[in-house]
Amino acid sequence: MNTAPFSFELFPPRNATVAARMPDIARRLGALGPEFISVTFGASGSTQDRSLDVLKYIRETTTVRAMAHLTCVGASVASVSAVVNEFIDAGIVDFLALRGDIPQGVTAAECFDELSTAAELTQLIRGIRRSRIPGELAPVAPGANRWRLREHRDGIIAVAAYPNGHPESRDLQQDLDALLAKQAAGANLAITQLFFEADDYLRFIDQARSAGVTIPILPGIMPITSVARLRRIVELTGEPWPERFADALDSCNSDAARRELGVAQASALSYDLLAGGAPGLHIYTHNRIDEPVEILGRVGAISRAQAEAALIEPNTASTSAQ
Ligand code: FAD
Fold first, then answer.
1. Looking at residue 253, what is its pLDDT?
2. pLDDT recorded at residue 315
3. Catalytic positions, please?
4. In which pathway does it act (predicted)?
5. 96 has which bridge partners?
6. What is the separation of C-alpha 304 from the centre of its chain, rounded to a whole number of angstroms?
7. Residue-level pLDDT at 314
8. Which of 7, 156, 206, 294 has its CA 20 to 30 A from that of 134?
9. What value does the CA radius of gyration of the chain take, rounded to a whole number of Å?
10. Ligand 1 proximity of 321 Cβ (cutoff 6 Å)
11. Under 8 Å between Cβ of 76 and 104
12. Above 0.85 for ipTM, yes or no?
């Protein structure tokens, strides 16, 4: 079966109850056969230990690549190097290199120490990897039929990309230049910020390819099942307000209807992206299992049996976790 490749993002649990469920969440998502599972990293290293715990669960409960997000905002070369070395010591060799958001009330000049862009962080991680792990980072190339990261034997340094522009960017060219700088620094994969229209991504791919970006650019998909979450996400990411989707969510009269709409929107978007040539799907799971499984099932990336197995609870607790 030539199904679409996919990957997941998890975030470190915020309380002990969810922490206890994380190994099970990692195991069940891992059993679906993602190319990798990435784990977010709080700005200024605020979640460092909890991020590492989740990465370790992925390694212990699955055979899937565990990818660590790392940020460099406000950090020194020495402190970031110590984190990279600690992660490599724990067996984590794949990274998503990010600058991180500038905290509110602080200027960029006040906030950056020795590292001020994700490109610089990429270069630092690449240097440390080189000294610790023999061999260069190979380009991620499409497999015989489909892009398969699982079959890529070398490490991954992924970076962020913004189909609708980063909020701090003057224009598209600045975003393309930033992405090219990250590629030149050694990144071999990009993962996008969420967006709501397939054309946003497909247009950006054309522009990036024309500008010389050659690395795969994986679209980030986020199932959004409430207006409150939509507001929070748009505020956090600076994405344009998706009028039509927001109105449709607003007019739903039950949680079940909002959930169905969110899953349907993410599934239709995923379908259009894959049909348009996207190399796979990166799903922001919010530590949930059921919506990602439904989306993957609807686009035919997993079988019905896989979906049913993933939804079996080990106990009677709900399948969601924050
Ligand atoms: P960069 O690529 O360094 O730059 C962002 C923008 O700054 C560029 O688009 C460009 O406009 C400008 N810029 C960069 N370099 C230059 C230059 N040399 N000259 C002029 N302008 C420049 N945040 C977290 O805190 N933790 C996470 O785990 C996390 N995970 C994420 C995962 C994904 C897939 C994405 C898309 C974002 C994630 N973020 C995370 C958010 C991210 O940290 C923010 O979007 C941040 O504001 C920018 O990070 P970056 O790595 O894109 O920065």
1. 95
2. 65
3. 9
4. One-carbon metabolism; tetrahydrofolate interconversion
5. 69, 158
6. 25
7. 78
8. 7
9. 19
10. no
11. no
12. yes
